[in-house]
Amino acid sequence: MRKITLTILVTIIIISLGRSQTLNVPDDIGTSTNAGNVGIGTTSPQSNLHINNSDVNANFPSLTSRGDILQLFEVINNTLEIGVAGASNTRRSWILSRHDDLSGTYGKYYSTLHLQPNIGDKSQFRGIAIGFTPATHIDIGTHLAVDGNVGIGTVSPNYQLHIKDGSGLRVQSSNAQIVFSDISNSLKLRMNNSGDLQLTNISDNSLCHFDNNGNVGIGTTNPIESKLVINHRSEPGLSGNKTGALAIIGLNTELAIGASSQTNGGSWIQTRHKDSQYPASAYTLALNPLGGNVGIGTSNTFGYKLAVNGTIGAKEVKVENTSAWPDYVFSDNYKLNDLNEIENFVKENKHLPDIPSAREVEENGIQLGEMDAKLLQKIEELTLYMIEQNKKTETLIEKVETLESENELLKGKIIKLETAE
C-alpha cells in the first residue's frame, strides 16, 4: 500500500513540476481513505495534496535560507517559494520569487511575481480580491479590490489607505483625478492639462483651483491677480444670510471681507456676531492694536499713527488730551501785545505772532489740536482787544454826549446874547 501511495505522489509531483528529476519525501507519507488525498508530513491529509511541517520553531526566509518552505518551484535558476512559518500560532506565510542560489550572493535578486497577468485580451479581466468572502465575484475590469484598510509603509493602517514615510502618493495621467463620494455627493480632485490642480463637484464645476505658479482661486479658475483670489460678490450684512467672500471667526464674533455686487460699489470689511440670530451686532475693528501705524492711500506714514494721502470727510472730529488750552489768556496777569507791535510784526512777517507761516504749513503741516488752541488764543486775545476797545468807545461816547450837552448850552446862551442886543 505504501508503494502505491508513493507512486501516486511521485506522479503528481512530476506532472506539477514537469522537469523534476529528484524526489525527496519524508518518512511519514500517507494516504487518506477520503477521496484519495495524499499527505506529506501527515498521515491524515485533508486535501488532494496536504503538506505538513511540524517544526516547533519559526524560520523565515533570508538571503541564505528559504525558511519554513512547503513548496519550491524551480526552473533553471529561477524559483518560486511557498512557505508557512513553524511554531504554534505564528500565523505568517509567504510567496517568494527569486534566484535559486542562496549562497549569499544572489539571494537578494528578486523575480517579478505576476498575479493575474495580462495575457493579451483583458475584455473579461478580473483581478485580485482581498478581504472579501470567497463567494464574492468582483466586477470585470477591477484589478484589485480590498475590503478593509490598506497600509503602505505601515502594518497598522488606520484608514482605508494609510501611507507612512516613503515618498508619498503620485497619480500620473493626462487627466489624473481622485474622487471622494458618499451616497449622494461627490468631489473630484484632479489635474488639468496645464498642470493646475482643481477641486470640483461631480458636475466638474470648479470649487477651488491651484495653479502651477502657486496661486489659489476660489470661485475662479484663473487666479492671476494674487496668491489667493476669491470670486464672490455681496453687500455687507449683520443678520440673515451671511455675506462676504471671507470670514474669520473668533469666540462669538467674526470679521467679514467682501466686494460689492454693484457697479463701482467698492469693497468692504465688517465685524459682526458670528451667529445670524443676533441682528445689528457690530463690533470694534482694531488696526494694529499692539502698535504700528496705519496708512490710507500711502505706505509712508512719516511716523504718524494714521496717515491719509487725500481728503477726510467726517461729521465730527474730537481731539483729546490737548495741553495748554488757552484759558490763560483771561488770567489777570496775561499781557496782551500792543496793537502797534502786532501791526509792525504783520507788516514784516505777513502772519500773526505764534501762528506758523504759509511756508511752514506747506513744509510741516499743522497739529490739529495745537492749531485749534493757537487759533482760540488769538480769538480770546481779539476778544480782550474788543472789550478794551469797547470800554474806550463807551468812554468816548460819554465824552461826546457831555460835549454835545455843553455845546447845546453854549448855543442857548449865544442865542440869548444875540437877542438881547
Features:
421 residues, alpha/beta, 6-stranded mixed β-sheet, 3-stranded mixed β-sheet, 4 helices, rod-shaped
Q: For the terminal residues, how far apart are their CA atoms?
A: 196 Å
Task: Output the helix-strand order.
Answer: HEEEEEEEEEEEEEEEEEEEEEHHH
Q: Specify the number of helices.
A: 4
The percent range for strand residues is 15-25%
Low-confidence stretches: 17-25
* Category from helices, strands and their pairing: alpha/beta
Rg, rounded, reads 51 Å
Physical arrangement of strands within the biggest beta sheet: 11-12-13-14-15-16
**Would you count the extended β strands for me?**
21
Describe the global form.
rod-shaped
Fraction of residues in helices?
10-25%
User: Mean pLDDT, as a whole number?
Assistant: 86
Major beta sheet summary = 6 strands, mixed
Explain how this protein is built.
This protein has four helices and 21 strands. It is of the alpha/beta class and 421 residues long. Among the domains are: 2-99, no CATH class; 324-421, no CATH class. The chain is rod-shaped and about 185 Å long.
List the helices and strands and how they pair.
Layout: H1 2-17, E1 29-31, E2 38-40, E3 49-51, E4 69-75, E5 78-84, E6 93-99, E7 128-130, E8 144-146, E9 150-152, E10 161-163, E11 177-181, E12 186-191, E13 197-201, E14 206-210, E15 216-218, E16 228-230, E17 246-249, E18 253-259, E19 267-273, E20 294-296, E21 306-308, H2 339-349, H3 358-364, H4 368-420
